[in-house]
Specification:
The complex is a heterodimer. Chain A is of the alpha/beta class. Chain A has helices at 45-53, 93-103, 108-121, 137-149, 167-183, 194-200, 218-222, 240-243, 265-273, 288-301; strands spanning 5-16, 19-30, 34-38, 60-65, 78-81, 155-159, 186-191, 203-208, 211-216, 228-232, 249-251, 254-258, 280-284. Chain A has 2 domains: 5-217, P-loop containing nucleotide triphosphate hydrolases (Rossmann fold); 228-284. Chain A contains 10 helices and 13 strands. Chain B has 2 domains: 56-156, D-Maltodextrin-Binding Protein, domain 2 (3-Layer(aba) Sandwich); 176-400, no CATH class. Chain B has helices spanning 3-23, 26-59, 68-81, 103-109, 138-156, 178-199, 206-213, 215-222, 225-255, 260-268, 275-303, 307-333, 338-345, 350-360, 365-392, and strands spanning 60-65, 93-97, 117-123, 130-133. Classes of the chains: A alpha/beta, B mainly alpha. The interface between A and B is large, with 46 and 34 residues.
């Protein structure tokens, strides 16, 4: 029976020595969604993913994957691309993909056939017989990604999938992720590159210092910061600053300030009446990057555990 | 899919990968033919050794400073007695020299000449001969004494032809002898020891590939570590079976050229359980010895983080194997003793000692128990090894210190991080 949640984890804790690397993280990934786990280096993203997959056991907390309390029972329905890429260098690309499929229950013959199709679709058809050791780093990374989807998993977990890829391969990967979602798979990926998360994620969690600091949609994350107004007057004058909100600061060619709760209209009326005019006006919505920096920066100010 | 079926499938996938990765490489040919190199080196060594030995033997001699009559009698006795010795065990050649006036000085001088090496020298009357001999030539001196005795006996019998004329009839035993059992026990222990010495040590470095390639993360995510360990062990065992089959077939073909005398010898050293059963048990115990020692080596090797550490492990591994061989060999020569029982029960020596048991005792049921017992220990070793790997390498343990570290103030090395952010 299809569940609303592909992953549901509560209170995950992992200690290494005296350090709580993951400290009570909750994650709920809706079925069919693309879900991002964002965080700075050392935030605990990889450890969280490894706990979700059952590679390591949490010290506290529980998790359910595709309805199974033991992730091993869902093993054949999961695809995983680890942060540290790993392939057998002596295998050729076709065998490497088929091997990863075989680990997840796909028979070798079917695995080889699908490997050919996937490599062709990814524009790597020419390299299907090449040994892994002869492929470029980016190509090997794509081969590994294809190996993680060859058995058509219901849940795809990607740990920092974009790192080390050139822009062309990054775009290929984005397309592949979207294609997997369209096929019906749920995708969970970790990254610290905001642009990918902003383009792909239906929902995301931001982790910093081992704790979950935010959970919601991209729009909700951006909504944690107010909009900013950038105003360029026609005529500067001594009284202009007094007409603007108290937080207004001089910027390169004008003034910047946070959008007041009452809106910007009243301010504009005042500056026009006083003859400063409007040469330029823009209202900037903060990006995910700004929200991330704010959320993670706030976490960094907290005393260490 | 049924959980057990999934585990078996995953285990066999790992085993298949390891088997193919090992067998389909040019290096495997070198590995397969390595016994030829060993035999070649052994032949060269033996040739050199025998040349040296022959050179030494040619120079060695026993000398009798006696009258020509006594000398002739001693030569005749030597001719007859020498027939009972194997060539390598025969005493040095006998030389008869005429005695001079100061025969004692003459005899002593034989030990300082550079023309030959005197092993023993006899002088004086044959009924009371004086014999000098070197520090390692006690047997040669006894032989000289026996020659003097025999020469006198021949003279006393008046030089007649042989007093006793024997008819020798070769007999082939229908029941193996007691010493034959012991010999087959020792052969079984030695055979399994050498096979495991050559083959199971390879298991120590098999996890190194996955760790260096970072493939372990892929495997650990898809497959329980116990299956990874067992799969790798089975893969390497497959390689070992291929090796044993290749050489087994070759040796059997070579065995068909063994003359009838060789076949009689094999019949004499027959194992107590009978040959067909013994062959099955030998293979079963080789399997268990490989799996047990391989599981231990794999588990220990998986903890090593560099090739240097793995190389450092080869000495203790060989020592462990030698110790098990020594224990099982002792058990083979003393069946039914407390030592033999200990060797049969102690997990790491059990396969060796039970193979010897099969040679010495005819009962079958202890082998069924022993195989189950050994299988249990294979499983225990794999579970412990996988658990240690999970805690030490994958960092899947709790934040508590390792068991022994809790009792020690010595700093414990940090586990290896294979990708934690």
């Amino acid at each position: 029976m299809a569940s609303d949640w592909a992953i549901k984890a509560t209170g995950l804790v992992k200690r290494f020595g005296d350090r709580r690397v993951v400290d009570g993280v909750d994650i709920a990934v809706p079925t069919g969604a693309i879900y991002g786990v964002l965080g700075p280096n050392g935030a605990g993203k990889t450890t969280t993913l490894r706990m979700l997959l059952g590679i390591i056991e949490p010290d506290e907390g529980s998790r359910t994957l595709l309805g199974h309390a033991n992730p091993r029972e869902a093993s054949d329905q999961i695809g995983y691309l680890p942060e540290e890429r790993g392939l057998y260098p002596a295998m050729n690309a076709r065998e490497a993909i088929a091997f990863m499929g075989a680990l997840r229950g796909l028979n070798w013959k079917e695995g080889r056939k699908r490997a050919d199709e996937l490599m062709e679709a990814a524009g790597l058809g020419h390299a299907v017989d090449e040994k892994i050791r002869k492929l470029s780093k980016g190509m090997a990374q794509l081969v590994q990604l294809l190996g993680s989807v060859v058995h058509k998993p219901d849940l795809l977990v990607l740990d920092e999938p974009f790192s080390g890829l050139d822009p062309v391969n990054q775009e290929r990967l984005e397309k592949l992720i979207l294609a997997e979602r369209d096929r019906g798979a749920t995708i969970l990926f970790s990254t610290h590159i905001m642009s990918h998360a902003e383009r792909l994620c239906d929902r995301l969690a931001i982790i910093a210092g081992g704790k979950r600091r935010f959970e919601g949609t991209v729009a909700e994350a951006r909504g944690t910061l107010p909009q900013r107004v950038h105003y360029v007057p026609h005529h500067e004058g001594d009284g202009l600053k007094a007409l603007l909100p108290p937080d207004a600061i001089r910027e390169q060619d004008g003034w910047g300030f946070v959008m007041p709760e009452t809106g910007v209209e009243a301010i504009l009326v005042r500056v026009i009446e006083k003859g400063h005019g409007i040469c330029g006006l823009s209202i900037e919505r903060p990006g995910l990057h700004d929200a991330f920096v704010k959320i993670v920066g706030r976490a960094a100010l907290e005393p260490a555990q | 899919m049924n959980n057990n079926r999934r585990l078996i499938r995953q285990t066999l996938t790992i085993a298949r990968r390891d088997f193919m990765a090992t067998v389909f490489t040019p290096l495997f040919l070198l590995f397969l033919l390595s016994p030829l190199l060993m035999v070649g080196f052994a032949l060269v060594g033996a040739l050199g050794g025998s040349t040296i030995a022959r050179g030494t033997a040619d120079k060695d001699r026993i000398i009798a400073f006696v009258s020509s009559d006594d000398g002739a009698a001693m030569l005749a006795a030597d001719k007859r007695l020498r027939r009972i010795f194997r060539r390598a065990e025969a005493p040095p050649a006998l030389f008869i020299e005429p005695a001079v006036e100061d025969v004692e000085a003459q005899a002593r001088a034989a030990f300082v000449t550079k023309q030959y090496d005197a092993a023993a020298v006899l002088y004086g009357p044959l009924d009371h001969p004086q014999i000098f001999y070197g520090s390692q030539s006690g047997r040669a001196s006894s032989y000289l004494a026996q020659l003097a005795e025999q020469a006198l006996r021949d003279r006393a019998s008046g030089g007649k032809a042989a007093l006793s004329v024997a008819t020798k009839i070769p007999i082939t035993r229908t029941v193996p002898s007691k010493s034959g059992h012991n010999q087959s026990a020792f052969l079984a222990v030695t055979g399994i020891f050498f096979l495991t010495l050559f083959l199971s040590g390879q298991a120590v470095g098999t996890m190194a590939e996955e760790r260096s390639n970072k493939v372990i993360e892929i495997l650990a995510a898809a497959v329980p570590l116990e299956s990874v360990f067992l799969g790798k062990l089975l893969g390497m065992f497959g390689v070992a079976v291929l090796f044993v089959t290749f050489w087994g077939v070759l040796i059997m073909q070579a065995g068909s050229f063994v003359p009838g005398g060789g076949a009689r010898l094999i019949a004499e050293i027959g194992p107590a359980v009978g040959f067909p059963t013994f062959v099955v048990l030998f293979f079963a115990y080789f399997t268990m010895a490989y799996m047990l020692l391989g599981a231990v080596f794999l588990s220990v090797g998986a903890q090593a983080s560099t090739m240097r550490e793995i190389q450092m492990l080869s000495l203790p591994i060989t020592i462990v194997q030698m110790a098990m061989f020594g224990l099982a060999s002792s058990a083979a020569s003393q069946p039914g003793t407390a030592l033999a029982t200990f060797a049969e029960v102690f997990p790491l020596s059990s396969p060796f000692a039970m193979a010897a048991h099969a040679a010495n005792q005819p009962e079958i049921w202890p082998h069924l128990l022993a195989l189950l017992w050994q299988l249990l220990w294979v499983a225990i070793t794999i579970v412990i090894g996988a658990s240690a790997f999970r805690r030490g390498v994958l960092k899947s343990g709790s934040g508590r210190k390792p068991f022994f570290a809790r009792f020690s103030r010595v700093a414990v090395r940090d586990p290896i991080d294979i990708g934690v952010s």
